Amino acid sequence: MRPILTEAELSRFLAETFPQVRDDFSVERLTPDGIVLRLKVGERHLRPGGTVSGPTLFGLADVAFYFALMSRIGLEALAVTTNVAMDFLRKPMPDADLLGEARILKIGRHLAAGDVLIRSEGQEEVVARAGLTFSIPPQKPAVAVG
Amino acid sequence: MRPILTEAELSRFLAETFPQVRDDFSVERLTPDGIVLRLKVGERHLRPGGTVSGPTLFGLADVAFYFALMSRIGLEALAVTTNVAMDFLRKPMPDADLLGEARILKIGRHLAAGDVLIRSEGQEEVVARAGLTFSIPPQKPAVAVG
Amino acid sequence: MRPILTEAELSRFLAETFPQVRDDFSVERLTPDGIVLRLKVGERHLRPGGTVSGPTLFGLADVAFYFALMSRIGLEALAVTTNVAMDFLRKPMPDADLLGEARILKIGRHLAAGDVLIRSEGQEEVVARAGLTFSIPPQKPAVAVG
Amino acid sequence: MRPILTEAELSRFLAETFPQVRDDFSVERLTPDGIVLRLKVGERHLRPGGTVSGPTLFGLADVAFYFALMSRIGLEALAVTTNVAMDFLRKPMPDADLLGEARILKIGRHLAAGDVLIRSEGQEEVVARAGLTFSIPPQKPAVAVG
Q: What is the ipTM for the molecules in this complex?
C-alpha cells in the first residue's frame, strides 16, 4: 500500500477538484500507511463557545481518509463513504489547526477501511477518533471510440 | 420519556440559541419517542454532483438527536455528543428537503442514546442511519444570591 | 423486501446448517422489514453476576440480521459481517429470554445494512442496539456437469 | 497513563476473577498506551469453515480493552462496555492464535475510550478493528466500620 501519488499531485487534485473545500484543507504529508491532512481552522468552523463543530470534525475525518485512499488507488478511482463510527473525546484547542492522521487498514476489491485520529496541532492528546469504510464501485468501462 | 416542551418552545430555542443553523433546520414535529427535524436543503449543503454532503447529513443526525433529548430533559441541561456511528445507504433525492427522525432509546444519569433515520421528504427509503450517544454532564450548581 | 422464505424454512435452515447454535436461537417470527430471533438464555450465556455476556448479545444481533437477510435473498446467498456498531444500554433481565428484532434498511448489490434492537422478553426497554453492514459476495458460478 | 499493575498481577487477576475465560486469554504484554492480549484459539472458537467466530473476535476486543483499562485505573475500579464499533476486515489464519492490541485514547471521569487491532500471530495484516467506549461508574463508598 505504498503511495502512487506525490504530495504535490494530491494538493493539486484537492485544489482543482474540490474548490469548495480547498481553503479548508491542505495535504500535510504522506505516511507509510496513509496521510496527514490539515484543517485550517477558521471562524466558519466554530460553533458558539469557540469549539470546532462536530460536522467539521466529521468532514476532516472523511476527507482525510478519502485522500489517503486516493493516494494509493489513484485519482481516477471512485470511492464513497459507507460507514463512519466516530468518538468525540476532548475539545480541540482554540486557535489551533487540526491534523487528521488517516491510516489505511484494508483496500479490498469493493471496500476499503481504516481509521483517523484528530489532534490539535502540537498536542499529543486525541480530540476525536473515527473508523471509516468506503465503497469502491467498479469503474465505468471507457467508451470504445472508432 | 414524554416531552416536557412544545414544538413552539423548541422552535424558539432553535432560533434564539443557534442563529448560525436556524436557516438550516426547523422542528417538524414531536413523536412519542423523539422528534422529526427538517433540513431545508440549499446550495450550501451540496457537494459537486448535487448530493447533500456527508458532514451535512452528520449535522442533521446530531442536531435531531440533540433536540429530541432537549425536548425530554429541558433546555437548561447540557448534552455533548460522544459517539456517532453512521451508515450512508443511498443518495438523497435532488431538490428535496431531508427529514431526520430521532428516537431516544435511553436517558441515563450520565449518558443518553438513540438513533436517527434520514429520508428525503416523501420517500420511504432511508438515506442514512445513525446511532448516537450523548454525555450529560452534571449541571453547574446555581450561584446562591444574597 | 418481502420474505421469500417461511418461518418453517428458516427454522429448518437454522437447525441443519448451524448445529452449534441451534440450541441457542429460534426463529420467533418474520416481520414486514426483517425478523425477530429468540435467544434461549442459558447458563453458558451468563458471566459472573448473572448478566448475559457482551459476546452473546453481539452474537444475537449478528445472527438475527443474518437470518433477516437470508429470508429476503435466499439460503444460497453468501453474506459476511463487515461492520457492527453496538450500544449496550441496560442489563438484561435475569431469567428471561432475549428477543432480537432485526430491521433491514438496504439490500444493495454488494452490501446490506440494517439494525437490531434487543429486549428481554416481555419488556419495553431496549437492552442493546446494533447497526450492521454485511457484504454480499458474488455467487460462485455453478459447476456445469456433463 | 502508565500502568500501575504488572503483567503478573494482571495475569493473576484474569485467572482468579474470570475462571470461565482464563483458558481463552492470556496477557501477552503491557504497552506504552495499552496492552496486548492473546486469544488461545481452540475448537470452541471456530464456526463451520474453520474461521474464528464473530462473537469470539468481539470478546477478544472487549476483554483486551478492559484489561488495558484495569492496568491503568486499578483492579478495584468498575468498567462497563457501553459502545463497540467493529470492522471485520479479513479472515484470521487457521491454526494461529489471535493477538488483540488495545490502545487507550482517553480515560475521563465517567468514560474511557480507545481501540483494538486484532491480528493472527505472526501476521502484519489486520483481521479486525474495534473502537470501544467503557463507562466507569463511581465506586460505591466503603462502609465505615466502628
A: 0.90
